[in-house]
Amino acid sequence: MFSLSFLPVLTLVSLAVAQVDLKVTVKPLSPTVSSIEDIGFSVIVTNPTDKEVRVISKNNILDEAPTTSFAVSKDGEEVLFTGIRVTYNFEHESNYVTIPASGSIAVNHTNLAALYDFQSHGTGTFTFLPKTNFRSSIDDPIASAKLALEPVTVEVTEDVQARALFDSNSLATNPVCDDGNRAGVLSNALNDARALAGAARDNVGTGAYAEFFGNNNPADVAYRFDMISGDYAGDRNIHCNQDPAGICNGGVVAYCMLGLSGGNIVSSDIFNCNYFFDNIQDSGALCSQPVENISNSKGGVTLHELSHATAATDDHVYGCQAVKGLSDQQKFTNADNYQCFALHVFRTQRC
């Protein structure tokens, strides 16, 4: 047992969310552990105002699922995230949390061993920087305030052996699905994703390129679209009826489970949830939407997941307007920048 009142506060930040400064404290359960199994943090997010605040609780420090709640490094080098990369349905309330007026929410992060490639970096001191990209809506812009984040460190003295988050099937060329209708949907979505990526590759450097990719080298971005279009990174399972992470509720559309070792992708299965089949539109429906308000399509979601699978992209932020506010480095590594640019090209050239 441990008492929050006796643990030293190692991180204190504030971030404006709908004109409210949320206070975030992150405390390690122990600053030194013998095994990565024992790495853990207690997090408290406090709303100091007299009004409740509703924020997205996914893919940030509020998320207890095996997503990326921390940026981890050792000796200045990034420790790659090896958990799940998720596409969410942000119309579903399960993706939000309300912090009461003058109240707090406590979150524990104690299952980090399988979420980062600690093994490739060996024993020593790891630095954890909490993700505090809080927004009240998927349409909200990225906060421009610069956060004075103080990193949290944990020393691991012995065991950094890689753990598997869950067992995945061996690689296969085609969608893995015993439902004929869903198998057809997956096949069409895969073909659409590759076509979207190919068209995006051919238009890199033109039109709205700078909005989605800033000053990144067009050749580097085109190469990633080319990998998605040709799927040069190898074969993978694409599932319609499996949920090994146990997260396919109403708030999740699809997710990719990457196996990474030494910076190399060794497995990259994609799992599609019911919402993908029942609610996500086909790309043709984009033609009736204003270009500034385009949203996910089945092919776009598949392209998003394939960007994870082929280039190990991250999910810094979601939403085709919000992604334009990222830094150039984040734009290059953010999955939705690839989906949104490809959908933008489709909307402006094919409709």
Automatic annotation (TrEMBL):
Positions annotated as active site in the UniProt record: 305
Catalytic activity: Preferential cleavage of bonds with hydrophobic residues in P1'. Also 3-Asn-|-Gln-4 and 8-Gly-|-Ser-9 bonds in insulin B chain
Signal peptide start and end residues: 1-18
Entry EC number(s): 3.4.24.39
Keywords: Cleavage on pair of basic residues, Hydrolase, Metal-binding, Metalloprotease, Protease, Signal, Zinc, Zymogen
GO terms classed as biological process: proteolysis
Cofactor: Zn(2+)
Name of this protein: deuterolysin
Taxonomic placement: Eukaryota, Fungi, Dikarya, Basidiomycota, Agaricomycotina
